[in-house]
Amino acid sequence: MILSHMEQYQSGLDGIFQALADPTRRAVIGRLGRGPASISELAEPFEMALPSFMKHIHVLERSGCIITRKDGRVRTCAIETAALAIVGDWLSAQRALWEGRTDRLEQFLAEATDPKETPR
Amino acid sequence: MILSHMEQYQSGLDGIFQALADPTRRAVIGRLGRGPASISELAEPFEMALPSFMKHIHVLERSGCIITRKDGRVRTCAIETAALAIVGDWLSAQRALWEGRTDRLEQFLAEATDPKETPR
Question: In this complex, is the C-beta atom of A23 within 8 Å of any C-beta atom belonging to chain B?
Answer without folding.
Answer: yes
